[in-house]
Design a protein that fits this description.
Elements: H1 14-23, E1 28-33, E2 36-42, H2 43-59, E3 67-71, H3 76-87, E4 91-94, H4 101-111, E5 113-118, H5 123-129, E6 138-141, E7 153-154, H6 155-160, E8 176-181, E9 191-195, H7 196-206, E10 219-222, H8 229-232, H9 234-240, E11 244-247, H10 254-264, E12 268-271, H11 273-286, E13 295-298, H12 305-313, E14 317-323, E15 330-333, H13 338-341, H14 345-354, E16 357-359, E17 364-368, E18 383-388, E19 410-418, E20 423-429, E21 434-436, E22 439-441, H15 443-451, E23 456-466, E24 470-479, H16 487-494, E25 506-509, H17 522-528, H18 532-535
Parallel strand pairs: 1-11, 3-4, 3-5, 4-8, 5-6, 6-7, 10-11, 10-12, 12-13, 13-14, 24-25
Antiparallel strand pairs: 1-2, 8-9, 14-15, 15-16, 16-20, 17-18, 18-19, 19-20, 21-22, 23-24
Helix pairs in contact: 1-2, 2-3, 7-9, 10-11
Length: 537
């Protein structure tokens, strides 16, 4: 081997912000905050505040390798921690406040965090769980106050007297940077420890034209939570490209999002389908338009077709994405290609809206059958989705064994197809696919079709025990406020659109339970209605 003669400069997360503070110093970072007015910073001032935060944490005894937990929404202060903590060599654990207490306690203890930084409206949660936190020594409220009544430090006062420059260490690019936990719908949450190398490479790839396609002209409003797999990597992909950021804090209701879009000229946003259902419902009731909004990425679960069509009619492009905590998190993004464009707009939209997307540079994908044999990319045959790449999990945090096979492939737990254009389509999760009388029924397809019925807010489908057919589908329908849609209406809607034997045995009008990351919680539904087809309740 002939060695290359280039500089061996490790990939460090802090260098992303270092670059933006010079190349895009005056680009705005706008943030709503908990019980405070909107704040306006830029990359230049954020660079200085990040240095102050690092000094303050070091003064508390945080050093390289230590873990720091955050319980915070989408704000500029949380954004600063995304660079300050890994920049000094520590690891930021973005704790999920929507987890049940037992799982939240587990993640902070499992992380072994020495400090916990929280938004003011997280105080009640922290007071509740504090007696069971085993390693936390310092509590800092992300607010403009000196100390709370509980004696907790206030972030602004803590950093205000610190120097605004920091001697950032050059770190091994394989050092840990972020610790993100799965939502733990079965068993305890699992920790995924992102490295600096993985985050930087993911940020570079995510901003490419075949992925999120960012530029310095974009105004990005992340509606996916910063605590959920680093908001799908937007803080890094956006910063690399010098976007203007608009952080909505915890205000994801329709009127709040619309005001930010209008006031800040937002061009790009992303989030789970439930957020956009609420937003579109607000537009319909208020007769407002989408203003400056140009593109929306939607992940977490499949995009209902009527949602995509509604946005399209308003001049907003919808892109599906797929990823998971274990993939840092983006794996595929649904962007068009010349081959799709040649098919005509209608066929292009059909593929874009019904597939999760095509692979990004850096991610390899394949589907295999039950014997591990690779299946063809014909868009018909489905199998277990396997991925590998430089930002894919190798093993879970503190786990004894590897999570990948001997060739480096990670089993995602999804059942998928891949078509001849390279587009991947999730047909179900392994644990959610319904086997009825030896035949497979896709819960995702049923949900997407049901979501198109007027009046339906959320549709959830799962399989439950049936004494004759092994499993049969049941459907939960949560309707929009003011809607009188009924189970009979749903049956009429589904009948011409699905195979007869796919028709759910029970359609239940009820609130649909969601996980801590905004996905449909099918474990709760299965547990709650396990015997409904046997006992009728």
């Amino acid at each position: 081997m002939l060695p290359g003669l280039m500089q061996d400069k490790p990939l460090n997360i802090i260098d992303i912000l270092r670059f933006a503070s010079v190349a895009h110093a005056s680009q705005e970072i706008v943030s709503k905050n908990v019980d405070e007015p909107i704040t306006r910073h830029d990359y230049g001032s954020t660079w200085r505040r990040t240095a102050q935060a690092a000094h303050a944490l070091a003064r508390l005894g945080i050093s390289a390798g230590d873990r720091v937990s955050s319980l915070s929404w989408n704000t500029h202060r949380h954004f600063e921690l995304f660079f300050a903590v890994p920049g000094m060599g520590a690891v930021l654990h973005t704790a999920n406040p929507r987890l049940p207490d037992e799982h939240l306690i587990f993640t902070i203890n499992h992380a072994g965090s020495k400090a916990l930084l929280l938004d003011r409206n997280m105080a009640e949660i922290v007071e509740r769980i504090k007696p069971q936190l085993e390693t936390v020594e310092h509590y800092i409220v992300l607010a403009d106050e000196e100390r709370t009544d509980d004696g907790w430090l206030g972030y602004e006062q803590m950093i205000s007297a610190e120097p605004d420059s920091y001697d950032w260490p050059e770190l091994d690019e394989n050092a840990g940077a972020f610790l993100c936990y799965t939502s733990g719908t079965t068993g305890d949450p699992k920790g995924v420890l992102y490295s600096h190398r993985a985050v930087v490479l993911h940020g570079l790839a995510a901003g490419l034209s075949g992925a999120l396609g960012f530029s310095a002209f974009d105004v990005v409003m992340p509606c996916q939570s910063l605590y959920h797999a680093t908001a799908w990597g937007l803080p890094f992909a956006g910063t690399i490209n010098g976007v203007k950021f608009v952080f909505p804090c915890d205000k994801f209701d329709g009127p709040s999002l619309q005001q930010l879009i209008r006031d800040e000229d937002v061009t790009f946003s992303g989030g789970v389908p439930t957020i956009w259902t609420i937003y579109l419902d607000h537009l319909e009731k208020s007769s407002e338009d989408t203003g400056s909004l140009q593109r929306v990425i939607i992940g977490g679960s499949a995009v209902p077709r009527d949602m995509a069509e509604s946005f399209e009619s308003k001049g907003v492009t919808v892109q599906q994405i797929w990823g998971m905590t274990e993939t840092c998190p983006l794996g595929v993004v649904s962007t068009p290609t010349p081959a799709l464009a040649a098919l005509g707009k209608e066929e292009e939209n059909e593929i874009i809206w019904t597939r999760q997307g095509r692979m990004m540079f850096g991610i390899e994908m394949k589907i295999v059958d039950e014997d591990g044999q690779e299946l063809p990319h014909d868009g018909e045959q489905s199998g277990s989705l396997m991925v590998r790449g430089p930002w894919v999990l190798e093993r879970y945090y503190r786990a004894d064994s590897s999570a990948i096979d001997g060739d480096g492939w990670f089993d995602t737990g999804d059942i998928s197809t891949i078509d001849k254009y390279g587009f991947m389509r999730i047909t179900d999760r392994k644990k959610d696919v319904i086997k009825s009388g030896g035949e497979w029924i896709s819960s995702i397809d049923l949900e997407n079709i049901a979501a198109g019925c007027p009046g339906v807010k959320v549709a959830a489908v799962t399989g439950v025990y049936h004494p004759k057919w092994e499993e049969r589908p049941i459907m939960l329908i949560e309707s929009h406020d003011g809607s009188d849609v009924s189970g009979s209406d749903l049956r009429d809607w589904l009948e011409p659109r699905i195979a007869k034997w796919w028709m759910p045995d029970a359609i239940i009008m009820a609130s649909v339970p969601l996980t801590a990351t905004g996905k449909i919680d099918k474990k709760v539904i299965r547990d709650r209605y396990a015997q409904i087809l046997v006992t009728g309740s």
